[in-house]
């Protein structure tokens, strides 16, 4: 499906290309044809990459979980933006556009790191890793946040300071506007996919509560990254526009500094949340209350302490429940009751992959 989309994009681009070229001139002079090819280049890139990006997202939606869909859409968008920026740098000779192309390559690499984390986190458990590799996703998401902070924010701040110290003469902004417009289209499409995936998971929660309570960084990392990119594109547009309006190239440097600050703030939020996930976050209070009530409803249970829990991956929860059973239970009855209780908990809450029932004397502290 992904290759079919790429072929369709190429066919549409070739049709535009053939229709847009002028008829050969009798003199055999290639000048007009060459100029027409250059004018058609932005349109060809737009048709090809929009079709390919849509195809990749559709394939991911069909064959992958929602979090992977958002990552693939972001990867396709960032790859397309990187190609466009490098093409613009080739035509304009702009070193700033080369730096922007490198920035988009870094964004593309970030999505690959998230896909790597997803794949590694799905490896089966073994004797050396009895609880599996679920936290691989949290580790690689933390690395992505570091890349956004150090490379994205750091390079933007450096470029902004250098631009203020050594302003470059203003040039024709046509290519800048073209690249910013196409980048906004691709990043906007990726952002819509990530936002739809995030909203489907958060339900009626507020945005901030859903972000702090989310256990799947592959969704909110892409969402925040795309939001930062869109906000950065708006700031970049204002920088280019105002610098030409007031004939002051320093304003472009100020815009670059603002973009760097945006990336630093976003990276800080992601670092904080991914650090919390790496250390191990518990299940939410509502789920723990429901599970405690389920345990206490068993006739053989005299008391149950609030469960101890920790997420090993977005859908893998480790649970320890301390339970005081009826003293008249025999060893065989106690074993059977514990096994039944474990089965009921995992049937009611599929994300509880590991549940340990610990018989204990709780006394008067727990009902």
UniProtKB/TrEMBL annotation:
<keyword id="KW-0812">Transmembrane</keyword>
<feature type="transmembrane region" description="Helical">
    <location>
        <begin position="71"/>
        <end position="91"/>
    </location>
</feature>
<feature type="transmembrane region" description="Helical">
    <location>
        <begin position="137"/>
        <end position="157"/>
    </location>
</feature>
<protein>
    <submittedName>
        <fullName>Cation transporter</fullName>
    </submittedName>
</protein>
<keyword id="KW-0813">Transport</keyword>
<dbReference type="InterPro" id="IPR027469">
    <property type="entry name" value="Cation_efflux_TMD_sf"/>
</dbReference>
<feature type="transmembrane region" description="Helical">
    <location>
        <begin position="40"/>
        <end position="59"/>
    </location>
</feature>
<dbReference type="InterPro" id="IPR002524">
    <property type="entry name" value="Cation_efflux"/>
</dbReference>
<dbReference type="InterPro" id="IPR058533">
    <property type="entry name" value="Cation_efflux_TM"/>
</dbReference>
<feature type="domain" description="Cation efflux protein transmembrane">
    <location>
        <begin position="72"/>
        <end position="279"/>
    </location>
</feature>
<dbReference type="GO" id="GO:0016020">
    <property type="term" value="C:membrane"/>
</dbReference>
<dbReference type="GO" id="GO:0008324">
    <property type="term" value="F:monoatomic cation transmembrane transporter activity"/>
</dbReference>
<dbReference type="Pfam" id="PF01545">
    <property type="entry name" value="Cation_efflux"/>
</dbReference>
<feature type="transmembrane region" description="Helical">
    <location>
        <begin position="254"/>
        <end position="271"/>
    </location>
</feature>
<dbReference type="InterPro" id="IPR040177">
    <property type="entry name" value="SLC30A9"/>
</dbReference>
<keyword id="KW-0472">Membrane</keyword>
<dbReference type="GO" id="GO:0006829">
    <property type="term" value="P:zinc ion transport"/>
</dbReference>
<keyword id="KW-1133">Transmembrane helix</keyword>
<feature type="transmembrane region" description="Helical">
    <location>
        <begin position="177"/>
        <end position="198"/>
    </location>
</feature>
<feature type="transmembrane region" description="Helical">
    <location>
        <begin position="219"/>
        <end position="242"/>
    </location>
</feature>
């Amino acid at each position: 499906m992904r290759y079919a989309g790429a072929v369709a994009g190429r066919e549409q681009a070739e049709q535009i290309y053939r229709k847009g070229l002028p008829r050969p001139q009798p003199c055999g002079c290639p000048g007009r044809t060459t100029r027409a090819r250059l004018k058609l280049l932005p349109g060809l890139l737009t048709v090809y990459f929009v079709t390919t990006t849509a195809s990749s997202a559709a394939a991911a939606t069909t064959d992958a979980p929602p979090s992977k869909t958002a990552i693939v859409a972001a990867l396709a968008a960032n790859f397309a933006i990187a190609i466009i920026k490098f093409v613009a740098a080739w035509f304009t000779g702009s070193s700033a556009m080369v730096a922007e192309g490198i920035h988009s390559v870094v964004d593309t690499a970030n999505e690959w790191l998230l896909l790597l984390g997803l794949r590694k986190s799905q490896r089966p458990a073994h004797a050396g890793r009895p609880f599996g590799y679920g936290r691989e996703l949290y580790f690689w998401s933390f690395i992505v946040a570091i890349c956004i902070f150090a490379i994205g924010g750091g390079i933007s701040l450096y470029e902004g300071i250098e631009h203020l110290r050594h302003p470059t003469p203003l040039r024709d902004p046509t290519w800048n506007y073209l690249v910013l417009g196409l980048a906004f289209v691709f990043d906007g499409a990726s952002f819509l996919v990530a936002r739809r995936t995030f909203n489907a998971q958060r339900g009626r929660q507020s945005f901030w509560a859903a972000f702090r309570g989310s256990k799947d960084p592959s969704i909110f990392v892409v969402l925040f990254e795309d939001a930062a990119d869109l906000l950065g594109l708006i700031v970049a547009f204002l920088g280019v526009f105002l610098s030409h309006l007031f004939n002051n190239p320093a304003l472009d440097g100020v815009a670059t500094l603002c973009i760097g600050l945006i990336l630093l703030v976003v990276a800080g939020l992601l670092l904080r949340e991914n650090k919390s996930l790496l250390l191990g976050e518990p299940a939410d209070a509502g789920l723990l209350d429901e599970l405690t009530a389920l345990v206490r409803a068993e006739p053989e249970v005299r008391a149950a302490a609030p469960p101890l829990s920790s997420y090993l991956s977005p859908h893998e929860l480790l649970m320890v429940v301390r339970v005081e059973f009826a003293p008249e239970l025999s060893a065989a009855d106690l074993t059977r009751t514990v096994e039944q209780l474990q089965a009921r908990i995992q049937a009611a809450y599929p994300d509880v992959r590991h549940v340990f029932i610990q018989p204990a004397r709780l006394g008067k502290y727990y009902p």
